[in-house]
């Protein structure tokens, strides 16, 4: 047996609990000065030298030497080939997942609307999709076909006519499942580039890579830093940090199940965070025993150990209500309510990216195929942001039509307010419409 796992144990009533919790939650992924400098340098090079810079950085950071940018472009025909190359079982799984994600996201579509006032004035809101979206699909340490589906399907449901995808292929290793997912999800073109250089290419365009209106999708610190840097030039969805899971358990779920749920996010990243809250101290002991029993059976045991020892915790709380209060303070990306009656707790949950209800709803099902999006706000940002959705690929335009009568009335109000702001042209523009 390997060394016992040194996971933090806390009691939410201990005097220094707040300090311990704050220390556990502290994570700032895009503040590193050297990373910022490198990313700025990469963005400047891509803006200046376009494709040539992409080819150079791909050789340097992905270990992939190519003669020209043409070798880093995959068209629809190549994506269709990938769909033929995967096994029937894999194809079915991708199709089931894509279809469920599509159906869920179709519920998010919002119609344009308008209403007419008594004098014939019409006011409304017109919804239009982005012209072109850029998807970043991570490919450094692992490949994520599921992320292709989660990013591309809502874009297509929103009506985006052109979806381009970037994905690094370290040492030229192409993941056929990623390409097959892109094919099924309706991606138009793929560029096998990654990191800050791919984000810069999507933001500014190069000879080969078209400039997009919005960049979505998770990535490592270089990707996140680059997305923050190009925001304003293009839209971005969010700055995604490492994965997180918070489990609230009443002590009645099999401890092995909870241990595996905690592992499931810890295996993403050394910086990932897995926390368990329970009012049952004996259950926390049982989960700790399960963690120790099962850890070595994981392919990524080393990464999981680092994540759990640095950022994981098993926390004793007074009650399930107390657990909900702490959960709101954490505002986790994923929250599992592994309790007999999750509906009873739901109204108390105010901040969480996705809420998994009951013992039979492990977070992993949401990662792949339940239907809702797995791109979620992390690092406490669920306080003010939402899962990736159809709305991220659409814009709203206000629509205003004034009848002559309506204009005459509104102009009187506008004139007073405009003169109060000393904006004479505004006032006179309105006043021209006042009926004599
Ligand atoms: N929130 C989500 O929905 C979600 C889903 C999937 C993955 N993720 C996260 O996305 C991240 C993926 O990271 P990844 O590294 O596997 O893939 P990645 O594609 O984000 O990053 C790989 C790229 O980073 C760049 N890079 C690496 N080292 C560099 C260096 N020293 N200097 C400059 N550039 C460098 C390279 O260009 C490389 O192509 C993980 O943290 C994972 O947890 C999140
Ligand atoms: N849990 C990740 C988001 O935090 C998404 C993912 C992809 N594959 C497996 N999981
Ligand atoms: Zn996951």
From TrEMBL:
* EC number(s) stated in the UniProt entry for this protein: 1.1.1.23
CC cofactor: Zn(2+)
Is Thylakoid set as a keyword in this record?
Answer: no
A biological-process GO annotation = L-histidine biosynthetic process
Per UniProt, the keywords (alphabetical) are:
Amino-acid biosynthesis, Histidine biosynthesis, Metal-binding, NAD, Oxidoreductase, Zinc
Q: Can you tell me which residues form the catalytic site? A: 333-334
Q: Name one GO molecular function term.
A: zinc ion binding
Q: Please write the reaction equations for the catalytic activity of this protein.
A: L-histidinol + 2 NAD(+) + H2O = L-histidine + 2 NADH + 3 H(+)
Residues annotated as binding NAD(+) are 136, 197, 220
Q: Name one Pfam family in it.
A: Histidinol_dh
The residues the record assigns to binding Zn(2+) are 265, 268, 367, 426
What Gene Ontology cellular-component terms does the record carry?
Answer: cytosol
InterPro entries, per the entry: Ald_DH/histidinol_DH, Histidinol_DH_CS, Histidinol_DH_monofunct, Hstdl_DH
Which residues are involved in binding substrate?
243, 265, 268, 334, 367, 421, 426
Pathway per its UniProt entry is:
Amino-acid biosynthesis; L-histidine biosynthesis; L-histidine from 5-phospho-alpha-D-ribose 1-diphosphate: step 9/9
**Cofactor-binding details, from the entry:** Binds 1 zinc ion per subunit.
HAMAP family linked to this entry: HisD
As for what it does, the entry says: Catalyzes the sequential NAD-dependent oxidations of L-histidinol to L-histidinaldehyde and then to L-histidine.
- Family under the similarity heading: Belongs to the histidinol dehydrogenase family.
The protein's name in its UniProt record: Histidinol dehydrogenase
Point out the gene that encodes the protein. Answer: hisD
């Amino acid at each position: 047996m390997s060394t016992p796992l040194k996971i933090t144990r806390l009691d939410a009533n201990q005097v220094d609990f707040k300090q311990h919790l704050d220390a556990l939650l502290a994570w700032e992924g895009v503040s590193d000065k050297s990373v910022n400098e490198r990313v700025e340098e990469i963005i400047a090079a891509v803006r200046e030298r376009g494709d040539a810079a992409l080819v150079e950085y791909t050789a340097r950071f992905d270990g992939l030497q190519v003669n020209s940018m043409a070798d880093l472009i995959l068209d629809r025909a190549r994506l269709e080939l990938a769909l033929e190359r995967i096994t029937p079982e894999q194809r079915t799984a991708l199709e089931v997942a894509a279809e469920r994600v599509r159906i869920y996201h179709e519920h998010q579509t919002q119609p344009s609307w308008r209403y007419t006032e008594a004098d014939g004035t019409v006011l409304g809101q017109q919804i239009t999709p982005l012209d072109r979206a850029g998807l970043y699909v991570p490919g450094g340490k692992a490949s994520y076909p599921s992320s292709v589906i989660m990013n591309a399907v809502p874009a297509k449901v929103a009506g985006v006519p052109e979806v381009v995808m970037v994905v690094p292929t370290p040492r030229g290793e192409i993941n056929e499942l990623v390409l097959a997912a892109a094919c099924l999800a309706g991606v138009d073109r793929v560029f096998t580039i990654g990191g800050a250089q791919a984000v810069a290419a999507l933001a500014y365009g190069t000879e080969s890579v078209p400039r997009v209106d919005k960049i979505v999708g998770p990535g490592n610190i270089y990707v996140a830093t680059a997305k923050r840097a190009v925001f304003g030039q293009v839209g971005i969805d969010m700055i995604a940090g490492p994965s997180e899971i918070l489990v609230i358990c009443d002590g009645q779920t099999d401890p092995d199940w909870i241990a595996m749920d905690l592992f499931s996010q810890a295996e993403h990243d050394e910086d990932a965070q897995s926390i368990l809250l329970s009012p049952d101290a004996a259950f926390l002991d049982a989960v700790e025993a399960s963690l120790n029993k099962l850890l070595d059976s994981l392919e990524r045991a080393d990464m999981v150990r680092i994540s759990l020892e640095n950022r994981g915790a098993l926390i004793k709380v007074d009650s399930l209500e107390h657990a909900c209060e702490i959960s709101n303070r954490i505002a986790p990306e994923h929250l599992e309510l592994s309790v007999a009656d999750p509906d009873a707790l739901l109204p108390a949950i105010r901040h969480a990216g996705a809420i998994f209800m009951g013992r039979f709803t492990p977070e992993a099902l949401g990662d792949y195929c339940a239907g809702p999006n797995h791109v979620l706000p992390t690092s406490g940002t669920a306080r003010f942001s939402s899962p990736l959705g159809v709305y991220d690929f659409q814009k709203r335009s206000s629509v205003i039509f004034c009848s002559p009568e309506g204009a005459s009335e509104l102009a009187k109000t506008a004139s007073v307010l405009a003169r109060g702001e000393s904006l004479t042209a505004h006032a006179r523009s309105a006043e021209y419409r006042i009926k004599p």
